[in-house]
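[step 3/7] inverse_fold.run input=structure_tokens len=567
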């Protein structure tokens, strides 16, 4: 606390010196007449001390309550008001000096308040992204982290009885992480109020639940924490970080991350202003042990391996805004809007959605749309590395018009309008070479009902299934029926095989039939009757020649089939 005391003392004395005249209102006449200078000095000393004490208390209360950085540039408004009051009540040269200070602080304040008009180009440069056309095809042998956080949070709340002294606590913010090779949601247990904090002193731990398996149940992990977002005074985690780093610039909320042994840590992003106390450019994170309060600072590039969100979702959302709005400066973002693209607000965390690639690296996904009202066409999408902040912007196939996330949610809402189900957490994947929205669907109580997949380029192609893999299997057939690309995965290659049919299973799928069959090579294949109408006559014992995509799935998609005696 020593730093805030010293800062408050210095700032309070400066403001008191600016407000209180060194001489009384008649001080200049006394000087001219050679009257009692010593007496005038004594009369001015009492209000000086009183104002100094008042200003010290005021500055301390302001910085302690609002927890902002303690740089002297943050005092500009106090200096502005103090110099204005001081110039009003002083005379002579003292009035002139304080008047000049007032004008200087006023100009500085105008500079700070109007910086956003002139530093838009700098903001865009800090957020500038590499640009590509398409993301590589999703590997269907991997299950995407597709459990929506609303559903995970709902299940955690229902399992809250596992927490000791349940009435003291409530569920904190949810975030996703990869731990020991598994994708999981993590949510700390927080105090539910001031008096609960006084009585409880520490929080008992956190919840974890699978982010890929909707049938999994949440687990409560005991791990006491003293420094938390819901604690008060010096035990509040944000205030604790500020006391350790009084001049640092922080942005975004604190997040809980756990290491491979399950030990929790709170992290927060720090960085620099773009210019004039405006804008933000992330540089690293601060990591806090919530039990001991030990604090470490890491620049990007040296962040511990277990930490996924070294760049907070709030920072990524801000960078997306810079990149989308300020391509041609601030004024263009307001009037002309040439090349402006608006980041979506459909993300699960601060308008962005965390996803993982096949290597387990976490990215923040955001789609961008046109600023023109009533248009649901997607202009592109970005993936931002959650550890480095490096971002790539994908334009998609410029020859096709892609539907944005809002359009995908509207399709789901119309599809289940009677049941009042809604889509949550839409993410764009490249399934079988087709840009596609995968969206979990929740009922009005927040329970997961199914997974919906719709083509971004061909919205008439859509399916839903009880699991992501079930929806993918149906989507594969729908693409065959609808003439989609069905190029397979990035690892798939087209192969040929001959054999004898051992088992056949036929299932009605819309106006057509999905034919699934097992060959004597012990591999399974699937094809739609729309692609090959004669496939409905397939039976056990038939000899066939196939061309298929080796996707690595259980059911391999057939590109072409020839049945002896039929073709």
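[step 3/7] decode complete -> sequence:
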């Amino acid at each position: 606390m020593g730093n805030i005391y010293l800062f408050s003392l210095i700032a309070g004395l400066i403001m008191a010196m600016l407000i209180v005249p060194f001489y009384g209102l008649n001080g200049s006449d006394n000087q001219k007449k050679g009257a009692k200078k010593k007496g005038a000095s004594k009369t001015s000393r009492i209000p000086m001390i009183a104002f100094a004490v008042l200003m010290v208390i005021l500055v301390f209360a302001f910085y302690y309550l609002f927890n902002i950085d303690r740089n002297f540039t943050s005092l500009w408004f106090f200096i502005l008001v103090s110099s204005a009051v001081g110039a009003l009540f002083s005379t002579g040269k003292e009035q002139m000096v304080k008047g000049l200070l007032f004008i200087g602080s006023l100009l500085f304040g105008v500079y700070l308040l109007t910086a956003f008009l002139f530093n838009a180009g700098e903001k865009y440069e800090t957020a500038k992204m590499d640009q590509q056309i398409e993301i590589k095809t999703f590997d269907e042998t991997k299950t995407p982290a597709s459990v929506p956080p609303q559903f995970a949070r709902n299940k955690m709340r229902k399992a809250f009885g596992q927490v000791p002294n349940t009435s003291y606590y409530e569920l904190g913010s949810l975030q996703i992480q990869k731990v020991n090779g598994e994708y999981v949601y993590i949510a700390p247990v927080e105090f539910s109020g001031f008096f609960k904090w006084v009585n409880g002193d520490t929080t008992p731990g956190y919840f974890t639940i699978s982010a890929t398996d909707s049938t999994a149940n949440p687990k409560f992990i005991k791990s006491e924490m003293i420094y938390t977002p819901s604690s008060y005074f010096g035990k509040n985690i944000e205030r604790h970080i500020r006391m350790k780093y009084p001049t640092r610039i922080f942005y975004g909320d604190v997040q809980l991350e756990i290491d491979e042994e399950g030990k929790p840590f709170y992290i927060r992003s720090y960085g620099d202003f773009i210019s004039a106390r405006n804008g933000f450019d992330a540089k690293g994170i601060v990591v806090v042990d919530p039990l001991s309060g030990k604090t470490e600072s890491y620049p990007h590039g040296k962040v511990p391996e277990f930490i996924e969100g070294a760049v907070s979702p709030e920072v990524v959302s801000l960078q997306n805004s810079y990149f989308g709005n300020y391509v041609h400066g601030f004024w263009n973002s307001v009037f002309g809007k040439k090349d402006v693209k608006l980041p979506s607000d459909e993300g699960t965390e601060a308008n962005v959605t965390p996803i993982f690639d096949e290597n387990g690296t976490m990215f923040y996904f955001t789609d961008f749309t046109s600023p023109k009202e009533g248009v649901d066409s997607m202009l592109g999408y970005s993936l931002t590395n959650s550890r480095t902040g490096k971002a790539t912007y994908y334009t998609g196939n410029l020859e096709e018009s892609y539907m944005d996330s809002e359009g995908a949610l509207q399709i789901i809402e119309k599809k289940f309008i009677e049941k009042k189900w809604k889509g949550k957490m839409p993410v764009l994947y490249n399934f079988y070479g087709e840009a596609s929205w995968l969206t979990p669907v929740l009922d009005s109580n927040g329970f997961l009902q199914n997974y919906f997949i719709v083509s971004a380029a061909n919205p008439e192609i859509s399916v839903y299934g009880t699991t992501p893999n079930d929806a993918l299997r149906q989507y594969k057939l729908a693409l065959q029926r609808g003439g989609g690309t069905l190029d397979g995965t990035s690892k798939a290659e087209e192969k040929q095989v001959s054999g004898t049919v051992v088992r056949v299973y036929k299932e009605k799928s819309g106006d057509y039939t999905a034919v699934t069959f097992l060959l004597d090579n012990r591999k399974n294949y699937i094809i739609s009757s729309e692609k090959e109408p004669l496939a409905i006559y397939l039976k056990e014992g038939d000899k066939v020649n196939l061309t298929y995509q080796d996707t690595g799935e259980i059911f391999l998609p057939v590109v072409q089939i020839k049945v002896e005696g039929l073709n």
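[step 4/7] annotate
The chain has 14 helices and 26 strands.
The CA atoms of residues 122 and 274 lie 7 Å apart.
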